[in-house]
Amino acid sequence: MTRPEEPSRPGENFEPYEEMRQIPIGVIMFAVALALWGGVLLYQSSYAVAVGRADETVLSPQSEQGLGLTGAKLFEANCTTCHQPGGEGVEFAIPPLDKSPFLAGGPEIAASILLRGIDGPIRVGDETFDGHMPSFASALDNAEIARLATYLQARFAGRKQAISGERVAALRREIADAGPFAGGQEIAARFDSSLSPQPEVKPLAGGMGISSGILELVNQGRGEVWSCSSCHGDRGQGADTVPRLAGLPADYIAKQLLDYTEGRRRNENMELVARSLSETEREGLGRYYASMRAASTARPSLGGNLERGRELVLSGDWSIGVPSCTSCHGPSAFGVTPGFPGLAAQHPSYTASQLAAWVSGERDNSRQKMMNVIANALNDRDRAAVADYLATLPPVPAPATTADEVKR
Amino acid sequence: MPLTVGLLLALSFAVSLLALAGLIWAISNHQLKVEQEDAYTIFAEGEAGTPDVDTPKHAPEIDRNQYDVRRAGLDVVSRPAVLLLVGSGVFWLVIGSAFGLLASLKLHLPDLLTEQAFFTFGRARTVHLNLVAYGWLSMTGIAVAMWVAPRIFHTPLRFARLPVVGAILWNIGVASGAVAIANGWTDGEEWLEIPWQIDILLAVAGAFFVVPLLATAARRDVDHIYVTGWYYLAALCWFPILFAIANIPYIHSGAQEATVNWWFAHNVLGLWLTPLGVGAAYYFIPKIIGKPIYSYSLSLLGFWGLALFYSQVGMHHLIGGPVPTWVVTLSIVHSVMMFIPVIAVAINQHVLVARNLWAVKESLPLRFIAFGALMYTLASFQGSIEALRSVNSVTHFTHYTVGHAHLGAYGFVSLIMFGAIYYMLPRTTGRAWPWPRAIAWHFWLVVVGFTIYFVSLTAGGLLQGFAMLDATRPFADSVRVTLVYLEWRSVGGALMTAGHLLLGIHVLALLARGPAWVPQTGYHPEPAVES
């Protein structure tokens, strides 16, 4: 640290300059190595582009190719949870497809029902059912609906009449925002008057019984508290980690709001909002969203394995002690009133973050601690798989909101 | 082999590297030849090789590397511009630090000064950034360039009044930009917050700096431009282009706007502040030590490597964003390639300092500058590694990035500017610093303060990043975990601000005495501090 034997301070007149030395060989070798690495990485970026393109095709439900599932596979994936693998239905609950007169009248009927869903009484064979069929318009693309309708007709009505994706696209445009069929009567009137006499449709109470106070909370908010729709959307459809509320059981919504108020469920935004609500308002909001219908806006977005997700949702995995989601949350994961929320068409980020919150104990507002145990048995990949698969399902059909029920 | 984006990229990358290697090889070879011929120019035709017994004491190398700046009167010509620019720079540093400290305090004392929109975090932080980037670093960097350029070109600064006008306009621009931001009028993009209408003023002011420097370079009295000159000339060509393109309103929107935004925001560091800092370090380190830089070829590699690689670096801020994958990958590769020029500069500068540690002990300006040069190496290495997708997915959107930004803009550029001010002002005013011990205080305040600042943000940022990635933890955890580190950051920031106040008072005290118009003979301006 001492200055070497130099006569004086460095002179004020010294001019900086550089010595004529070559670049050290080590630096050159290092530079060449880095250049090789960079070249390889750039060359490989095509691979990333290819993967991205493939992902895009899978993620877009409106694409004409879709997952490329055959009609049989689509039937298995979308219909059998309710209509059963043999198409025999469930007595008193789910109409049979096998030998159903609705399938005999040409594939356009099946395609239209798939696109619109049914919300009203329907008579199939000798039995009358309270029809609650979801719309698959937001879950399946045109080609898929065409293949599925063609398959259903061939298998259950024995007719080899096919419908094209273009025809389904045209139907989709015709239907636009028509909403679900109001029971078998409307279907019969629209397509085939020869269908067996259909039951009378009782007028629905849609919108009735929802006080203007509730609508104001939903649309404008009150005082310093913002509106529900500012985050959850004007149709309760949600986005990302903001959950879809449309079609969740009314009691479930009211309970969550109460839990936020009393600190059993935690979320900085919702705690603030929920604390401003009265008991009547909590129940009113529950009924409002339970009766709401909204097309699915959820898409798989976490890169989860959809096959694995399907397995967990429909069958569970007993090797890790996980029961199927549908065993409690109902067929097609549409929810079971009053306590089990619908999971179908829920946003994958929300589902996965809730599963994660059950693991960490951040969420533990169910007395049985069932979800804590189940979520804990799933790993990150499983949680993503379940969440992504649930996002491919059609949205929960609205429950019967008859006048009696709303007045309750 | 199918023609893919990747193949095209890899090929053009290879071609550009070969071109770079060829360029450096050609320049350094040519220069070697010139050096040989140069050595003969002092001889009359046919005289070479014959001992010249009459003038045995004038060896040619000594003449070539000695130049009496005072006799040439260069500092007197550049003095008004340098003093005005340094004075303004230090003024904006003090104000800017106050805003930085306020923004830092607000992160753990959220109820502090919330009554007025002017003082809210979003505006205080933005005012801080613009004041220190465009007020402090740019003006001081230009001041150093105005002072150094005539010395390496062996000719007085041309149009010496233009930079004075430029400094006045620039000050008006910075001040009105800060007022606009504080009142909520911004362009809404990071590093480009100053409204474009005000940017026009800054661009005009910039021309008043560029013209004199280019004119001085054009009339230089040397054949070979020293490496500092390359950095200065390049920076003054690059920055106006960057600044103008990025600020043109209404031509970019959406994802393109973000791409241009980060192209600019990173280039303003690498192609503007970095050359100002590296150029200054290249001048002051050998100047103070009195020995030459290690290798001319490495200087070439460092400069041309920066020129080639840096312009693509910014898009690593958009990893995971809605821009084409290949754009981001190209940016990552270029970010990592920055290792090459940085290592070249590091060898050139650190070898000289490491062999002459006595000088770091004796000269306070060199202490600042050598520390700053070391931080350049560290900040660049850290930046290259941060650009990798695996690291970026943890550190992005965390305080870690803020720590890194300050390692570059503060640890590197600001420290070098401090050293340059302490070396420059006595020589340009002809007056010694009134309180030499205050310089040592300044050094230790900012070094200790910055160490606390950097270590706490780096640790807190990493914890924050891991908390955000853990899906089983609520988002609020990633905020809570940083709290204690943010408090320490404020402690570090307060120490740094105290150092800046000390500098501000010291500069005021020096300037208050007025410049000695003719430096006293035999006067040696090196601060006489042995600490």
Automatic annotation (TrEMBL), chain A:
<feature type="domain" description="Cytochrome c">
    <location>
        <begin position="304"/>
        <end position="394"/>
    </location>
</feature>
<keyword id="KW-0408">Iron</keyword>
<dbReference type="InterPro" id="IPR050597">
    <property type="entry name" value="Cytochrome_c_Oxidase_Subunit"/>
</dbReference>
<keyword id="KW-0479">Metal-binding</keyword>
<keyword id="KW-0349">Heme</keyword>
<dbReference type="GO" id="GO:0020037">
    <property type="term" value="F:heme binding"/>
</dbReference>
<dbReference type="GO" id="GO:0009055">
    <property type="term" value="F:electron transfer activity"/>
</dbReference>
<feature type="domain" description="Cytochrome c">
    <location>
        <begin position="66"/>
        <end position="156"/>
    </location>
</feature>
<feature type="transmembrane region" description="Helical">
    <location>
        <begin position="23"/>
        <end position="43"/>
    </location>
</feature>
<dbReference type="GO" id="GO:0046872">
    <property type="term" value="F:metal ion binding"/>
</dbReference>
<keyword id="KW-1133">Transmembrane helix</keyword>
<dbReference type="Pfam" id="PF00034">
    <property type="entry name" value="Cytochrom_C"/>
</dbReference>
<feature type="domain" description="Cytochrome c">
    <location>
        <begin position="216"/>
        <end position="293"/>
    </location>
</feature>
<dbReference type="InterPro" id="IPR009056">
    <property type="entry name" value="Cyt_c-like_dom"/>
</dbReference>
<keyword id="KW-0472">Membrane</keyword>
<protein>
    <recommendedName>
        <fullName>Cytochrome c domain-containing protein</fullName>
    </recommendedName>
</protein>
<dbReference type="InterPro" id="IPR036909">
    <property type="entry name" value="Cyt_c-like_dom_sf"/>
</dbReference>
<keyword id="KW-0812">Transmembrane</keyword>
From TrEMBL, chain B:
<keyword id="KW-0812">Transmembrane</keyword>
<dbReference type="GO" id="GO:0022904">
    <property type="term" value="P:respiratory electron transport chain"/>
</dbReference>
<feature type="transmembrane region" description="Helical">
    <location>
        <begin position="443"/>
        <end position="468"/>
    </location>
</feature>
<feature type="transmembrane region" description="Helical">
    <location>
        <begin position="405"/>
        <end position="423"/>
    </location>
</feature>
<feature type="transmembrane region" description="Helical">
    <location>
        <begin position="230"/>
        <end position="251"/>
    </location>
</feature>
<dbReference type="InterPro" id="IPR036927">
    <property type="entry name" value="Cyt_c_oxase-like_su1_sf"/>
</dbReference>
<dbReference type="GO" id="GO:0015990">
    <property type="term" value="P:electron transport coupled proton transport"/>
</dbReference>
<keyword id="KW-0679">Respiratory chain</keyword>
<feature type="transmembrane region" description="Helical">
    <location>
        <begin position="131"/>
        <end position="150"/>
    </location>
</feature>
<dbReference type="Pfam" id="PF00115">
    <property type="entry name" value="COX1"/>
</dbReference>
<feature type="domain" description="Cytochrome oxidase subunit I profile">
    <location>
        <begin position="262"/>
        <end position="531"/>
    </location>
</feature>
<feature type="transmembrane region" description="Helical">
    <location>
        <begin position="488"/>
        <end position="511"/>
    </location>
</feature>
<feature type="transmembrane region" description="Helical">
    <location>
        <begin position="325"/>
        <end position="347"/>
    </location>
</feature>
<keyword id="KW-0813">Transport</keyword>
<feature type="transmembrane region" description="Helical">
    <location>
        <begin position="368"/>
        <end position="385"/>
    </location>
</feature>
<dbReference type="GO" id="GO:0006119">
    <property type="term" value="P:oxidative phosphorylation"/>
</dbReference>
<keyword id="KW-0249">Electron transport</keyword>
<feature type="transmembrane region" description="Helical">
    <location>
        <begin position="194"/>
        <end position="218"/>
    </location>
</feature>
<feature type="transmembrane region" description="Helical">
    <location>
        <begin position="81"/>
        <end position="103"/>
    </location>
</feature>
<dbReference type="GO" id="GO:0004129">
    <property type="term" value="F:cytochrome-c oxidase activity"/>
</dbReference>
<dbReference type="InterPro" id="IPR023616">
    <property type="entry name" value="Cyt_c_oxase-like_su1_dom"/>
</dbReference>
<feature type="transmembrane region" description="Helical">
    <location>
        <begin position="263"/>
        <end position="284"/>
    </location>
</feature>
